Structure formats: structure tokens, C-alpha cells
Amino acid sequence: MIRLAFGLFIALLHVGAVGQVSIDANGTVSSTQCQYGRGQIAVGGARDRALSEIADFLQGPRLIQELEAEDVLEATDSSGSSAATLLQEQRSFLLRGNSVDSLRFNVSPPWIQGNDTCVRVDLLPVVPDAGPSQGDVLVRVEVIGQGYPSGEQTALERAEADALRRAVSQVVGTWLSEQRAESSALSLAIENDSEQTVMSDLMTHHLVSRSTGYVSDWTLLERKALENGGVEILISAQVDGTQLREQGQSLLAELGSPRVSVIADPPLDALLLEWLSAERISTDANAPLKIRALSNLREYGSNRRMDLSIEVTDNFGNLYGAWRNTPSLIALPDGPNVYQDLAEVHLSTEKQKASLSAALRGAFMKVLGQGGLVREVQIPLEQVDDSVRLMTILSMIGGVSDVNHATVGDRMSVQMRYPGPTAELASALQASLAHVGLTTGSRFLVISDSLIQVQ
Amino acid sequence: MQYFRTAFLGIFALSLCFTPCIVLAQAFGLSDMMSDADSATSDDVSSSGEVVVAESMGAAAQQAHALLIAEGSGVRLLAVGSGTGIMATGQSGYRTYDNINATLLSKRAAFQRAGMQAKRFLVENFQGPDIACEAMTDDFLQAVDTASESVANQVSIDEEGCQSAIRGALSGFVTYQVDDDVENKTVSVSLISTPRTREGITASSGALVVSTEPAEVFNSILADLASGVTPPVGARLIVNPVSGENVTVAFGSAIRRQNSNPNIRRRLVQAADDQARMRSQAALIGVLQGEDVYWSGSFDESQVEGSAQFEVDPSLEAEEAIQVLNEEKSTFLSTLSTQDEYRVVQAGQLPPGVNTRTFASEDGYWSFAVSVFSPSLNAEAVRAANEMRAAREPGSVGAVTGPSGRALEYGGPNDDAENPQGPSGRVSDKEKI
Hints:
Chain A has ten helices and 24 strands. Chain A is of the alpha+beta class. Chain A is flat. Chain B is an alpha+beta fold. Chain B is built from nine helices and 15 strands. In chain B, the strands form three sheets. In chain B, strands 1-2-3-4-8-7-15 form a seven-stranded mixed sheet. A four-stranded antiparallel sheet of chain B has the order 5-6-11-12. A four-stranded antiparallel sheet of chain B has the order 9-10-14-13. The two termini of chain B are 23 Å apart. The chains are: A alpha+beta, B alpha+beta. Chains A and B meet through helix 1, strand 1, helix 2, strand 3 and strand 4 of A and helix 4, helix 6, helix 7, strand 12 and strand 13 of B.
């Protein structure tokens, strides 16, 4: 029987190799996946499954499997009777997580296969500075988009949105984080002639794909009608590529915190806020990433010079970057406005501004490089049976790194890094920990950008 | 037997399974594997106690497996001229029910349990269990003698209890054969570890880079896989005949639950594929990086046996309290309590280049997954990942183309229920283990 099944296996392999990663002669990694249904949701589902396959191939997922079995047999025999009970319990828990960023890919036009919609995703080879582009900032790509009328949107509008999404995913890339977990339990109880069996399975799947980019300009090149009122278009799109990735707002979005807070005395605070605004970075007093400025006036006879330092830290005291001005750049005569004048001069010279910008961007990159912002998860101790096992499981969640914990009062405080929004982490935790009984009847509440509480 | 056990332990202490896993360069050539086991006569294979001695590993494995299946479960050492192997077989029963899903789930759980039992035997044979036993015997004798009569009551109480535990790390083994005996509703899983499997798996996870088209790797293993059964648990080792590359293949399985609603059924199939996929990846971690195996077993047995020729009535005076029974009264009560606990943990990160494929069994009841790892696939994945990482560097962006209901029914076991034959047969080629 199984040999025949294997025949089917081989047959499937030759029919488009659905469901596995393949590599062509040019070294292009690709995967073809299908999803039941029609339309954008089915296309997106098939695309995400294919991306998940490719992500697993590029970077093996973290995985833990626990299998447990217990048998208890009790038998009693007397001179006139015999009785026995058997209790068999079997449990398994499997958690698998992966997180990959900068996946640049091209999605084929979808095709129908039975009730499924299928797409092929090709990981794009990197060809530096190929094709017509403006410097190394803007990248022009030609992409195909398809759309069908739905609700208030016309087919053309949906085709345009599809094409623009493809343009961004090709140039900027996609961050993909996936968690899968399953837990199974089987219980068999036999007491003499009475028997009871209970089986249960729980599966959770949490997949997030995110692509952030900016299409500065696009032109319609071709348009043709499809069946069922659909439209296919070919556009030439200009995407803000590398530069956009380096810009503060994009980085912060990737870090999962859309804002930073500024801690500085006037007039430094106003000057920094102005600079952040120019960089399209929003500010919030409660943001987990802090930009702290310290200044000091030095006396040089009747003149004054300014020592200015700026640090980027988080709520947990981690230092990601520091910048110091060049005090010798300028000295001004002492006076009532000397502090403000010196600050303005130091933050307005092109060299100093460029140096500060580079330092802050470097700090943001460092946060990203370390695995994202630190988040604290507070769990009531009464819900934690085995802290070592809990830490192991948390470490397996895709994207999570640097997990450590401490006991604070009646709570376990777990700190971890995650390269996405806090709400997304809470959702991933909820999905994964439901299998180990931690979240039975519990909720993961996002208290702030850096704090999640289990209640 | 002691000689072989000692020799075996000497080799395995260095090469089998214990972290960090060290593999000796075995003097075990390809020619050792090429002898035709099927031609081995009974004269070529001899069995003594736990050891099977043969000319080739294939012949020894075949004989050991036959012995283990006959016994139900256990372990055998395989001794050939240039190396020592070990085979362990676990066995477990399952139930059949009116609900086919329940039957299949019970069967898969049995395969899993049998696999855990076999792993326990492997670890147990290597290091031996920690055992603590306690036994107690109490005898009570009460005799009454008068001038004319003598009567006595006697009670013996025997109690015995043992606790045993094993903990170890296991790697370098593959699945030799799985069987589903649908008549007796039992399944068995046989695992084998030989110098070749241990060395091969280490080599496949090493830094060896073979210039092989990755698609060919898959194609070559397909042909090899077709020669054996796809087991619901475990792994096997395949050697690419063209390149000589070692390819490790791990298996996973899940039940495709049946449902009358086609949409739910479709979703259940997808869920089963995902489950099988995850399980095969977990199995691959277990083979490549090792897995922790824990077993503890205990039993308590007590027996009370006695005979009484008189009874004492406490309400009467001493002289009259003793009532001689007309017939001697015998008592017997025995209680036995046993407990077995298994725990197997696989944890880690898969290396790049693992390719997983899911497919259905012919009868459509099972989802199978094979996760394949080879040095050449690994090299391709590392290359692609490096390209991807390089693209993150500033300035490297390049242009690219391209409502009403009823209560759930609870049924009991049904011995006559549908019971599709589960995977049965040889998994690993006996000539290549």
C-alpha cells in the first residue's frame, strides 16, 4: 500500500512539485503552493505558504517536540475473583517557530488547479544596481498585477494594488514570522469490562508577513481584460528601496515601535524634535526607545564651549548608540543666550547633523541587529508550573531571542527581544502557549509598547 | 555473550549517541554492506542470547528482527566481522472503534509508543538502568494446643517493589522496519544503529559539500525510498549512488481525519499535512542533533496467603473464644501495580537546506512527510541565504524583474470496526545499514 502511495509521491513531484522547495539550474530557490478558494485571499494564502517553505529552507526553524507516555496497570487476584484496571495516557507537544527578514521574491500570476488557487514564488537573485535606476536610492521595476471587482473596488483598482504590493516585495523584501504548534492527548482507561477513550488535538498557526515600502511613481504600461471581469496590468514602478530601509521611520516600524521619546532640556528637546520630524520619526513620551540628550557648558576664559552627548536607550537600560559633538567647533562669548546659541550652532552645521543622523540610524540598526526591542512579559507565578520548560518553549517562538526571566513579587518577569510590534508578539505568545496550559482562560494584554501582562 | 557485550560497549561508548556524539573512523567498508543477506543460510547466522553473529550486517539484522518480532520487543546486538550494531524493537497495541478517526489515532499513538519503547531499549542497552528494589516477607503463625487438640493459623505476606529509570541522549539510529498486525491490533517499530548509520548521519550533517544538483538529490532518494516502506516515525539514511553523498531522511505522519463536510475535510487534510511536516522535521532534529530519552518503570506486588483452622471470637471469654473451624479456611490475595513513564524530547534548530515534502497514503487515511537533509542542499540554502543577507547591506538593492444540532455520540471500542492496514514492512535497505 505504501509503495503505491510512493508512486503517487513521485507522480506529484513531476506535476509541478507542489509543496516543496526547488532550485533551478541558475540557483533560483522557488516554491509552488496552492490554497483552497479564489481571489486575493487564496492568492495571499498560497503565497504565504510558499514563502514559509522558502524561509524554512533558508533558515531552519527552531523546534521542540516532547512526547510523553504513561501506563499504569493494577491487577488484583483473590482465590475467587480477578479484577484489573489499565490507564494509558499519551501526550505530545510540538512547537516550531521561524522568522526571516528581507525575503525578496516574485510571485507568479495565479492559476487554478481544481478548487485551489496556486502560485509560484521565486526568491529573487540579487543583481546589484541592475536595470534603470536613479542612483542607488530609487529602483524601477516592471511588475504584473491582477484584480477582480470586489465590493466597491473595481478590477483595475485591485490590479493596481496587487502590482504595487509586488513591486514593494521585490525591492524592499518581506519580513516573515511563523509559529506552528500542536498538542495531542490520548487517554485510555479500562476497568474490567468498561473502557473509555478520549483523544484530543489542538493546532495553532500564527503567520505574519510584512512589507513596508514607498512607491514614489508608477506608470501603466499594458492592460488586458481577463475572464470574469478581471484585469491584468503591467506597470513600471519606482520604489524607494535602500534609502527607505535606512530611514528612521521604516526602521522603527520594523522594530515594532512607531515612536521614540525625547528626554532633553530646552532648547535641545525642540531641536531634536525638529530633526526627528524631518526624518519622519514620530515621538511619544511613553515610547520604549529613548533619545536622551545631555549638555554641559565649559568655560574657556570669557568664552563658552558646549559638550553635547546624545544616547539611544530602551526602557531596560540597554544602550544602542551614542553621539558626541565636537566642542572645539565653536566657542561663543558668555552671555544670557550662549547655551541656546551654541546648541543651535552645533545642531545646524551640516557635518554635525550628518554625524548625528548616522549615529541615530546606527543605533536603530543595532536594535534591529540585536533582534528587536526588548519586551517584558509578566506572568502570574501561579500559572507557571515549570519555569525551565517555559523558557525553552518561549525561545522556540519565531523571532524571539535573548529570553531571560526573574521573579518579581507574585509574578514571573520574562524579558525577550522581538523584531515586530508588541501586539504581534502577544498574539504569537497566546497561540504558542495555549498548548502548555499557561493560557487556559488567560489573556495576553498589551499594556504598553514594551509590556505584556498575562491576566 | 559477555564478550560481545563488552566489545559492543567499548565501541559504543565512543560512537553511539551520547552527547557530544563522537564517531570513530570505523574500519567498515562498502564491501561489508554488499554481501547478499538473502543468500545467508542459517549456517551464516548464529544467535546466542542477545547477540546475533553473521557474516554481514544485513543478514544479522534480518535474523535479529525475526527474533525480536517473535518475542514482541527487546534488543539484540549484531556482531559482524568488522563492526557491531544494535537493533531494538518496541511493540504496542491499539484499539479499533466505530469512528475511523479514533481507530487511526489510536494506531498512530501505538506507533509512537512503540518507537519510544525501542529508543528506551537502545539507551538501556548502552548504559543500563538505575534500579532500586525492595522486598519484604512477613510470616505470622498462631498455634493453639490443648491436651487433646492442636490447631494453627498461618499468614504469609510478601511484598516486592522495584523502581527503574533510564536517561540518555540518542542519535545515529534509523528505522529498520515497522509492522502493523491488524489481526492482533499491535504495531511494532524496529530501530537499528550500526557503524554505517552513525558515521553516515554524522557525515551528512558535516561540512562536506558535494557538487550535486539539488533536484537530483531528491530524485535519487525517491528511487531509494521506493525500495522501502514509509514509516510513520523515525528516519533512514540514503547514500546517493552517483555522488556518494549521505542523505538523511526523516519521516512524519498524521491522520487525515474524515468528515462529511467537504470544506472541513479539506481543512483537516491541510492540518494533517502540516502536522506530518512538523513531525518529520522534529524527527530530523532527533537524528541529526540527538534526542533525550527518559524512561522510568516501577512495580509493586504484594501477596497475602494464609490458612486458618480456628477463629477467635473477641466477645467471649478466653476459654470459649477459640472456635475450631470444621474445614480449614484458605485465603489468597495478590495485587500487582505497574507503572511505565516515557519521555522523549527533541529540541534545536534545523540546519539550512532541509526540504520537506508531504503526500498521502494510497488509502487516503494518512499524511506522510519526508524531511530531507543533504550537504549539497545545505550548501545551496547557505548560498541563497547569504545572498539574501547581502541584499540588506545599504546600496546593494538591485533592480529585478519579474445551528441546530445534536449531542456528540460517544461510542466504545469495536473489534469489528474498519481497520485499514497501517504501514508495514522494511524501511531501511538491509544491505545498506
